[in-house]
Amino acid sequence: MHTWRRVPRGLVTGAWLVCGAMLLVPAATAESAIDLLPFVRLASVTFAGVSVFALDDPAAPVTVSTEAGRLRLRAAVVAATLPAVAAAWLSIVLGARLIAGSPDELPIAGLLVELLALMAAGWYIAALMNREACDTDVAACAAGALVILVAMTLSVPRLVHALWVGPGTEWNRSHGRWSAIACLAFGGFLWLSRDPAGRAVRHRVR
Length: 206
Known about the structure:
Low-confidence stretches: 199-206
Structural class: mainly alpha
Mean pLDDT: 88
């Protein structure tokens, strides 16, 4: 029950409404679904930023000392948040894709990989900011840092070519990189979420 309460349902609903309007309005006049690509990516960054708020836990000073520990609690809330965010994102992207012309020109699988990588990056940033302490309000800072990081990649032509390409010859290579980012960021998130007290004890034993 505690895990389900930590899923930022209100923020996900708000993002769904805002991003839905942002996508469905231009979809109605778009000549092709590919014209929606910038809006879909903006929606992905928005949902990824919202997903970070799942890690805000006012009860953290108490719950991290329980048998479950910080790693299990964070993994549980991430496991609950990920499908909720992905479902909300998919509903509006698929809806906009169907409304627009030539829907097959907008590959959903690759864009979903981008969303998952952005979410994993947000969780990693939050875990990095809250590595030792039990702060209960790091999500806003982590979400802001994620947006800044995305903006930085968009300002470097080499990174734009590596990550933000459209469907074509570089699409698969680009999403291989996105998959690597997702795996590394999620692995880093789990590593940083280990119990700091447990790490200290193991360090003293060695």
